[in-house]
User: What shape does this take?
Amino acid sequence: MIAVFMLCGCDFRQPQRPVVRLSAAASLGPSLEALKPRIEAELGITLRLNLAGSGTIARQLIDGAPADAVILAHPAWIDAVTSTHRANVQSKVDLLSNTLVVVGRGGEMELGELRDAERFRRIALGDPASVPAGRYAEQALRPVGVWEEIQSRLVTTADVRAALRYAQIGEVNAAVVYASDVTGLAEVSPQDRNSLAVLCRIDPARHEPIVISAAAIDRSAEGRRLIDWLRSEAARDVFVEQGFIPR
Assistant: This one.
């Protein structure tokens, strides 16, 4: 029987699903991983995620890295990709927003208290040159006179999730990250000041608006389908649960 099937050229294997490559800011990683099974089931695709800092992703795409869609956490980086005509400007959408928080251990604090070198010997944040969270943090810290004072104590990271990991393992005393990075993390408890907690929420008025934008790459039809799905109610609900703000 096997020989007959081979002779007639029959192939009963399931057709392969198209692979759709999504390059996205690292801060979106947990949400996209949570959404991945549903995306694959409803769109009939295999989703491949490439997560890194927005600046790193933008440079990869500008240099020709393969992708079908991109999500970046600052308008400047999405504009850099569209200016090279890799991203389809007609497909560009502002997908989400976010807020910044300071995490660490100990009691609640005001933003200006980061200048306290005894309490905050090392402070982590994304590299402002390539990580939007770091860029927004710099904008918030400069007006309160903190930015210049903490330069020798800064630990800059390749993406915002790395800054959070440094705080989690105690390599730094504080980290400036997105609120979405710490969903479920408790506010400071007077009974437990040794656990990682949100020490301070940064007023969004202190920095430019946080805009997370998406676009299809190289006019990919599958990329556009994916972006449309990420604007659905099902996706929005997950993003909200993870601490993002729909736009």
About this structure: The CA atoms of residues 87 and 180 lie 26 Å apart. Residues 29-43 form the longest helix (15 residues). Residues 1-7 have pLDDT under 50 and may be disordered. The chain has eight helices and eleven strands.
